[in-house]
From TrEMBL:
One GO CC term on file: peroxisome
Chief location bin: other
Location(s), subcellular: Peroxisome
Pfam families: Ald_Xan_dh_C, MoCoBD_1, MoCoBD_2
Needed cofactors: [2Fe-2S] cluster; FAD; Mo-molybdopterin
Taxonomic source organism: Colletotrichum fructicola (strain Nara gc5) (Anthracnose fungus)
Gene Ontology terms for molecular function: 2 iron, 2 sulfur cluster binding; iron ion binding; oxidoreductase activity
Family: Belongs to the xanthine dehydrogenase family.
Domain of life: Eukaryota
Key words, A-Z: 2Fe-2S, FAD, Flavoprotein, Iron, Iron-sulfur, Metal-binding, Molybdenum, Oxidoreductase, Peroxisome
Protein name as it appears in the record: Xanthine dehydrogenase
Aldehyde oxidase/xanthine dehydrogenase a/b hammerhead domain span: 1-100
Amino acid sequence: MPRQHNELFGALVLAKRAHAELVSVDYTAALEMPGVVGYIDKNSPAKGTNIWGAVVHDEELFAEDTIRYYGQVIALIYAETALQARAAADRVEVVYKDLPAIITIDEAINAESFFKHGKQLRKGDAVEGSLAEAWSSCDHIIEGTTKMGGQEHFYLETNAALAIPHIEDGSMEVYCSTQNLMENQVFVAQVLGLPMSRVNMRVRRMGGAYGGKESRSTPIAMYIALAARSANRPVRMMLNRDEDMAITGQRHPFQSRWKVGVSSHGKIQVLDMDVYNNGGASLDMSGAVMDRACTHIDNCYYIPHAWIRGWVCKTNTVSNTAFRGFGGPQGMYICESMMYKISEALHIDVDELRRRNLYEIGQRTPFLQEITDDFHVPTMLDQLTVNSDYEKRKASIWEFNSKHRFKKRGISKIPTKFGLSFATAVHLNQAGAYVKIYEDGSVLLHHGGTEMGQGLYTKMAQVAAEELGVSVDEVFNKDSQTDQVANASPTAASSGSDLNGQAVKNACDQLRERLAPYREKYGADAPMSKIAHAAYTDRVNLAANGFWKMPRIGYEWGNWKDPLPMYYYWTQGVAISEVELDTLTGDSTVLRTDIMMDIGRSINPAIDYGQIEGAFVQGQGLFTMEESLWSKSGELFTKGPGTYKIPGFSDIPQQFNVSTLQHDSEGNPISWSKLRSIQSSKGTGEPLLFLGCTVFFALREAVKAAREMNHVREPLVLNSPATAEKLRLAVGDPLVRRAAVKAKEGEKEWFTRIES
């Protein structure tokens, strides 16, 4: 954003404790610093509004009496320059009285520190409250614990906002890097004591978001709006990378303790599971993330009897939040970890085990949603197996491993189905649009979606152009703002195109109907400029408000008999990854990845292919290299690229083949006419991310090959992310065994992993 006249800059004062009483805060030294104009703190918001929350209002905007996590915001200093504001923020003197802190999932479980969210899924015998009879029919019962770390969003543009107070009418205009304009508007209005109609939130584009700007952008907007009102001048703030990573939360770390019963042929009969995530100090969207995780525990497999319980752990860490996949990747990772354990216990090839347990049409998920004829996973498994020479490569990998001592290869083939909709937040499954045709035939488009690099604006312009019969060049997609489209749902849950596209279509349908007489009069090839001019002179309204709400969904938790569907449809896919592991260093290379996705009729294949490839690599990072480490005092250590590793160019699969489903198992072209989505397309932003785990499980196979050569008999325990360090130690060769140092009594690791 261009520099504003008389603009100020904000900087946050952050807590240096994970859990403590806030004894005193002294601003004297800070206010004497050059360029400092003022500060805001817990006394600045309108009465009763220093507390907020995306779902439950349980988070203080500014810390009041107690610090609940390291990095909690105490105050904001505003000054003439950003450097002056930051220097002054460092001079604020804070006195604490330390309190015991809960950091990890295990600590929360032991202390019974949970949010009041706990939900569960019951199916089969579990509906009546007992699985005893179901267990008795099982030939094998296997138990295990699965752990998975979180993930930093690491968008290129950190959270930022600019607030401009309008003196004449008392309104506030806020430019914010956010996925969620309405939520920003709601809380900015509340904290200022204004009606929502006097707050206009705007965003043209974001430099990435991945869910990290769905709720955690809201307090940034609130801070800056408060400062702007206090100073009566424009104020802006952009977090530096360390601040952004410390205070905005991550993907939720998960832990699952499960017990599964199977037949002698490997057919799953019963699943009993407790699923935990580390929610942090406030609930934020942790409950909804847990809901989606629990509803993806089945992945693509039929489970007759299931009892799944979700627990959101309350800890003294920054509140974790939405991240691309929103619990789905964690749930499906738990499922696939379980499949490998079953495979190894029963000595059944894991690919065959998956095949035996795949859903069939008409069967129901653990939340009783029926699998319809839109389920294409078996077809894609068959096609990708053939197209990638999978069986031949499996054999060549076995031969390679038998001939190489320090290099091992592995391969993994995994399916996915990802539910599309705002799951149980049914009210969010709506969208609005405002389309205007000007007298010269040009089109101005407003909708409630936000652009974060996923190509939504391009797709919406395409929808409008196709519906109105004009070229894309004639459609201008204005920046998203709340004074044009009210009450917009967040751009999230891979629903941006589905919801906003249908709203745009609805508006265009109205306009097309009004213009139909002129189309008929001047002919189908007449330019829009001629048609619009004629309609204008006849006093026809050339602007239309569009609206759409997603039908046929409405799942209610606790209805274990006959609930409405939770998801509108499934985006499905299959991926195969082959890796090579250097057992001496733990370094690995992804030699090849093949992906096939069912995305319906793509509105823009170039965008969708980019989403598929990007999601896969981000998932690869989640499962293999992105590791968050915390100090014992509760401070995040891995802040910035110096300590936190995200995938680079050299990490991308050396051979990367992506295709979309076009034909059925008989070779006939698939008709997408039954799809009720916009132009029969499917969401692509999130569904593919989970399949990055094929790299993890291929590495696990390579480690198994190395352990066999090293005669390691102990069960392999390899939790996500499979970093180079973990892989090197998991090989279990004589050098690793000799280097092992036994911990002294009471001695703990220097760093903490909060999924433990």
